[in-house]
From TrEMBL:
InterPro entries: METTL16/RlmF, SAM-dependent_MTases_sf. Keywords: Methyltransferase, Transferase. PANTHER family: RNA N6-ADENOSINE-METHYLTRANSFERASE METTL16 (PTHR13393:SF0), SAM-DEPENDENT METHYLTRANSFERASE (PTHR13393). One of its GO terms (molecular function) is methyltransferase activity. GO terms for cellular component: nucleus. This is U6 small nuclear RNA (adenine-(43)-N(6))-methyltransferase.
Length: 477
């Protein structure tokens, strides 16, 4: 890989259990090289995403799966039910889904976690949107992810590389047996050139960018992990014994996969500490979480360290299982609103700043041309670093180094013109303080104009710009 510097009570049971390994996979001396995607590949990304986007949005139809896979039919009970307390049935479901939906093969030992495919797929799907929307480049750019604690299945790298031809992974673990099976799964699926497995030690950094493996790993664009949920083996046993009824699914995980000192909060806090040193060497640091309270605690730690660019999402699988994911970045590029913010009011306190503001809402009868013409007129009147309009997508992208729409800025410009002098600002001439999209969305009954925050750390500046544009558009409504 080449080096690159980039501009409620929680339900613990799930298909395959809660977590993955604490850290690190088997050594390899082969680095992963990723080719720049061609135009045809970019079109393929769009088609591929369309296929994967809605997988598992509805409940699985076991009868239909049995019709397509005789091995799954063999473990299906009468009336089309699956015994989720039977490890063999759970493992076969995982194998069947990976085969039918991703053309992937899998081999697992009986004493390691069997990953629930829908849940793992949801994490990858969110990561794709996180990386895509926090970049000015089109989807399909070369990206290298780090899967911390990949487990015996190596499920995340398998799913990620299958869905994105330009993605590669570094997969780490501290458990030798898990690494042996991870290697088998990588080889079985012919992905040795895109997935680098590394064995790590418990005392090693979670992110292998500045230690003995740094020659093999010179670039990481995002991190991901599903940390051990329990703080101790006693807590894990107590939790199992205290359940009022049997778990919803068989749990085959080993203690190394389910327990670490301090549980998930301590494990993610460890990655946070490393990120405060590495900062922009990684674009996004992310983790799945099993407790809503863990999200709240960790967001508090992000804010305490001055990190304002972060994202929260929720994964809901079936009627009972909920998981969350948290990501943070030291870069100025921001993800889309639907990727970073939860809509429910209960999450308002911990959600990141608003990333989308509606500035116009009107009946769809009004001609789009007049709306677009007004947007172009307003943008043309501002001294922006850049502004471009995509007529096909009815959206424009702008960047500015100053608040060029404010009265203060206009007065400053008038004084400069009157005196012939130039008043320097504190912002370097090539630094963007605000990047934004202006998007016209035409629905059946209404047409809206929204402003998306794409770049910057100043929420007040973004809200000020949206308010300015709203004032310029209001007579059209």
């Amino acid at each position: 890989m080449s080096s690159k510097k980039r501009k409620a009570p929680d339900e613990l049971d799930e298909y395959g259990c809660v977590s993955q390994a604490c850290s690190a996979s088997q050594p390899s001396t082969k680095a992963v090289e990723v080719a720049i995607p061609s135009g045809d590949q970019l079109q393929g990304v769009a088609a591929s995403d369309a296929h994967f986007r809605y997988l598992y949005d509805e409940e699985l139809d076991f009868k239909k799966l049995a019709e397509k896979d005789v091995d799954f039919a063999a473990v299906l009970q009468e009336h089309g039910q699956l015994d989720f307390t039977d490890p063999k049935a759970v493992m076969q479901l995982t194998k069947t889904l990976l085969s039918l939906d991703f053309n992937l093969k899998l081999e697992l030992p009986d004493d390691r976690l069997c990953p629930p495919v829908p849940n793992r797929h949801n994490y990858i799907r969110w990561l794709k949107e996180l990386m895509d929307t926090s970049s000015y480049e089109p989807p399909g750019r070369p990206i290298c992810g780090l899967d911390i604690g990949t487990g015996a299945s190596c499920i995340y790298p398998l799913l990620g590389t299958t869905q994105r031809p330009s993605w590669s992974f570094v997969a780490t673990d501290i458990d030798k047996k898990s690494l042996q099976y991870a290697r088998k799964n990588v080889v079985m699926n012919d992905l040795e050139d895109r997935i680098l497995l590394l064995e790590r030690q418990p005392e090693d950094p979670l992110i292998p960018l500045r230690d003995r493996d740094s020659k093999k790993v010179t670039r990481i664009d995002f991190t991901m992990m599903n940390p051990p949920f329990y703080e101790s083996k006693d807590e894990m046993l107590y939790s199992a014994q205290s359940k009022a009824r049997p778990p919803h699914s068989a749990c085959t995980g080993a203690p190394v996969e389910m327990v670490c000192d301090g549980g998930e909060v301590a494990h993610v806090s460890r990655m946070l500490k490393e990120s405060l040193v590495l900062k922009e060497e990684v674009q996004w640091y992310t983790s799945m979480l099993g407790k809503a309270t863990s999200v709240e605690t960790l967001v508090g730690k992000l804010k305490a360290n001055g990190i304002d660019n972060y994202a929260i999402t929720e994964f809901i699988q079936g009627n009972k299982t909920r998981r969350w994911a948290l990501g943070w970045s030291f870069e100025a590029l921001r993800p889309a609103e639907h990727v970073a913010r939860l809509k429910t009011s209960s999450w308002k306190k911990v959600s990141p700043p608003v990333l989308m503001i509606e500035v116009l809402n009107m009946p769809s009868g009004k001609a789009l041309e007049s709306i677009i013409a007004r947007i172009e007129e307003v943008m043309g009147s501002l001294e922006l670093m850049s502004w471009s309009w995509d007529a096909k997508g009815t959206r424009g992208t702008g960047r500015t180094r100053e608040n060029v729409w404010s009265r203060v800025w206009r007065r400053k410009k008038m004084r400069e013109q009157a005196t012939g002098s130039f008043v320097p600002t504190s912002t370097p001439s090539n630094e963007c303080r605000l990047g934004f999209d202006v998007v016209v969305e035409r629905g059946i009954s209404t047409t809206t104009v929204v402003v998306n925050w794409r770049e910057g750390h100043d929420a007040v500046m973004f809200e000020s710009f949206a308010g300015f544009l709203q004032g310029k558009m209001k007579d059209l409504g």
